[in-house]
Amino acid sequence: LDFVMGAGELVDILCSDQWARDKCIRTAVYTIRLLANFHPEPKKLRALSSIMSQARVVTRFVDSPQLAASLLRSGLLGKTGNPALDWLTAVQNVCDMLYYPVEHLAFLSDLKIVRFRCLRGLDLWGWSCVFWGISITISLIQALHKLSTTRPSQDDILLMVREVADLINAVGWMPSGVLWAGKVPPRTVAVLGLVSSLIGLRRIVRARLARKRAKSSE
Predict the structure, then answer these.
(1) Measuring CA to CA, how many Å separate 15 from each of 18, 24, 126, 204?
(2) CA 129: distance to chain centroid?
(3) CA 140 to chain centre
(4) Helix or strand or coil: residue 119?
(5) I need a surface site. Which of 63, 119, 163, 202 has the fewest CB within 10 A?
(6) Angle at CA 187, nearest 5°, toward 159 and 195?
(7) Closest C-alpha to 133, from 176, 95, 183, 100
(8) 133, 167 Cβ separation under 8 angstroms
């Protein structure tokens, strides 16, 4: 009974908001991509992962306005008291807000609904990776600054691992000629994406449980 109640609570958390749902789909996508490397018919699993990736994009059509509103409510500038870090946070928030509409337009462009020319040699998917890569790099800078001023916790170390994994994949999907773009093997992409997704899910579950315990103790 305790197991069933615990599983039910976990499902409630994972379906509680757009962040949790997105991380669940992302985890499934990379799990399938990894399994495709060991499956006798990998094309079928890769096709499934591609469909699920498109499902993520479609769900973000609905969720992105809410995500943008959340960023605007919290303010673009950071609140650390360190001007450099606060302005970096502002740049990161702008990149995060630009990422979603660019991703939506790239998806619509693939469907031939809208047409866009490459800008500075990058298509829309390339620009979405650029915004994502900038955001991740700023997160890494913030994490390194925190590590240099305080004793790192397990969560801090896992956050670093997640950001490094995402940065490797983000650059890997950029056009050839950009650092290691196009040189990351599919199996490595799947492993890095899965590790990042699981760490993200762990953070969400821990945060929701902590919030629930805090409410119950009031």
Answers:
(1) 8, 9, 30, 11
(2) 11
(3) 14
(4) strand
(5) 119
(6) 20
(7) 95
(8) yes
Phi, psi of 78 (to 5 degrees): -75, 170
What is the pTM (predicted TM-score) of this model?
A: 0.84
Q: Within a 13 Å sphere around the CA of 102, how many CA atoms are in the beta-carbon half?
A: 20
**Is 66:88 a contact under the CB 8 Å cutoff?**
no
pLDDT at 46: 93
**CA angle 101–169–45, rounded 5-degree value:** 90
> What are the tokens at 140?
């890494």
Provide, rounded to the nearest whole percent, the portion of the chain with pLDDT above 90: 39
Give the Cα separation of 47 and 61 in Å (integer).
Answer: 22
Q: Do the beta carbons of residue 131 and residue 91 sit within 8 Å?
A: no
Give the integer Cα–Cα distance in Å for 66 and 83.
28
State both tokens at 24: 């669940």
Two structure tokens written together for 69: 């509103």
